[in-house]
Amino acid sequence: MKIYSSDQMKNIDFETIKKYIPGNILMEHAGIETVRIIEKKIQNLSEKKVIVLAGAGNNGGDSFVVARGLSSKVSKLDIYFIGEEEKLSEDSRLNYNICKKLNLNFIKNFEELMELNEKFKYDIIIDGIFGIGLNRNVIGEHYNLISFVNNLKNKFVISLDIPSGVNSNTGEIQKIGINADLTIAYHGGKLGHFLYPGREYRGKLSIVDIGIPNIVESEDDLDDIYEIIKKEDIKFKIRNKNIHKGNAGKVVCIGGKTGFSGAIYMASEAALNSGSGLVYSIIPKGINTILEQKSTETITVPIGDEKREYFRAIDYVETINFINEIKPDVIILGPGIGREEETINYILKLLNEINDINIVLDADGLYAIKDDLAILYGKNIIMTPHMGEFKRIIKSDIKNKLEKAKLFSENYGVITVLKGADTIISNGKKTYINLTGNPGMATAGTGDVLAGIIASFVGQGYNRLEASKISVFLHGYIGDKIAEYESEEGVTANKIIKKIGECIKDIKK
Ligand SMILES: NC(=O)C1=CN([C@@H]2O[C@H](COP(=O)(O)OP(=O)(O)OC[C@H]3O[C@@H](n4cnc5c(N)ncnc54)[C@H](O)[C@@H]3O)[C@@H](O)[C@H]2O)[C@@H](O)CC1
Ligand SMILES: Nc1ncnc2c1ncn2[C@@H]1O[C@H](COP(=O)(O)OP(=O)(O)O)[C@@H](O)[C@H]1O
Ligand SMILES: [K+]
To answer: Which single residue of 95, 184, 440, 466 could bond 64 by disulfide (Cβ 3.0 to 4.6 Å)?
Structure first.
């Protein structure tokens, strides 16, 4: 499902108003649709005492329409306008004046608001303080107002378009944000509704149509496309009836060192359980015995001498020879591989040699390239960093992480799967935010499993972006199933592997 950045949304509003529908009609739609949703969702509405908080922008304008629509349907309604009348936009002023003419009660100042609340105890708060026009940190009287709302007891907070204080592009909180129970968004979801921490602030999300004609978006070919991944967007390919293991996807996992054999084991098992025909694990010989005992279907390919506990640079020759011989569809490079200097050189030498094969670069494979990013150019790479690994690579903080992941993908020609509670997948043009998964997945090895699933789907012929999208959704979906059957605490990487098949079936339904 498509979602929007604030610039895209502003542009859509602008084009609609310029060519087709006046702003005050859009505002009317936004406000009236909001009233309709409130009537549907709030029981005993006629008994409720409502305070409408209106800011100086068009979000405030929407709230004047809501105030007018709700005033006769509730037991008490007051408006607190935090702004200057002279600075209101034409559309907002129109609705402000209607509220005045209707003699709706405007609260004079913050002190009066507190007094009235003491007396009546508002039970519904309409938040029209800021919408997608928020462009700086919230301070002063706005800060105090938001803090006042968040501290109220027994209230139901409804934010118009986006909770005030949440940045609609990044989901970041601009110093303080309204903690909403329900957000009613106009025309479409915004990035800030789905990226944390904004995702936690917005409560339930309802998206309403405000009458923007379809033609506006077809005329406006958006350069960047943002989507959240829905179950119905996941399309698994039908497996060809006469395939054999040699052409059902050949995956090579490269990684492991003493103490970290589990990572490569889990990546390989995840690949197998996602449908790959053949999975090989290239590992330092020193851990071969352990891995052979654990794996039954995976073919282990030990490299180096008996005591070799980690890869050395020279091992790349043997590795490349093997790769040239078996011609895999995809290589996972990095799980459990470690950070020995020799190993880093091994990884860099390998990457220099491999040009046409798909690579999932994970874990310490990402550590190895952190000072040699040019090595990524011209290759078919999916990178799967978590936030810490990504920070190390881009050498900056991860504020505005979506934009940074998108830019990185564009600049280096890779697909970035930036893992977290709101995993972001981008090829630089198209960017997805994933909604599946839960805090139970913050446990050792779940990342290795994801790398294995992604590689498996790449190997089965899905394009890299599609494979990443499907895998991230599926991985989180399985985590959610385990949390539902057992508990979030019960989620482990091994359980995720075991449920891959069942959940693929589930998603196909
Ligand atoms: N006509 C339109 O374009 C439509 C706009 N709509 C509404 O309009 C909203 C966007 O309206 P605006 O662009 O006017 O923006 P907002 O209503 O979000 O507010 C922006 C105003 O707040 C000020 N501001 C921003 N950050 C501030 C801060 N931290 N502290 C104090 N003041 C701050 C800005 O200078 C500006 O005056 C949408 O979210 C939506 O609710 C909808 O009514 C649909 C139609
Ligand atoms: N709070 C969370 N909500 C949803 N998914 C999460 C959460 N925390 C972690 N995950 C997922 O779990 C996986 C963890 O991967 P990673 O950090 O690489 O762990 P490891 O290195 O232990 O395998 C990622 O896919 C991430 O998206
Ligand atoms: K708002």
So the answer is: 95
The answer to whether 419 is a known ligand-binding residue is yes
Q: Is the pLDDT of residue 274 over 70?
A: yes
Domains 2-222 and 244-508 share a fold: no
> pLDDT digit string (tens) for 248-268?
899 999 999 988 889 999 999
- Give the whole-angstrom CA distance, residue 267 versus residue 472: 14
Tell me: pLDDT of 87 over 80.
Answer: yes
133 annotated as belonging to a binding site for a ligand: yes
- pLDDT at residue 453 greater than cutoff 90: yes
Residue nearest ligand 1's atom 19 by CA: 57
Domain map of the chain by residue range?
A: 2-222, 244-508
Does CATH place domain 2-222 in 3.20.20.70? no
Q: How far is CA 140 from the centre of its chain?
A: 31
Angle 309-315-319 from CA coordinates, rounded to 5°: 115
Query: At 220, is the pLDDT very low, low, confident or very high (cuts 50, 70, 90)?
Result: low
**Phi, psi torsion values for 90, nearest 5 degrees:** -60, -45
Cα 450 to ligand 2 centre (Å): 9
pLDDT(270) > 90? yes
One-letter identity of residue 447: G
Atom of ligand 2 nearest to the CA of 263: 23
Please give the structure tokens belonging to residue 97: 């004046």
CATH number 3.40.1190.20 is the correct assignment for the domain at 244-508: yes
Query: Is the CB of 441 within 6 Å of ligand 2?
Result: yes
Please work out whether the CB of residue 262 comes within 6 Å of at least one atom of ligand 2: no
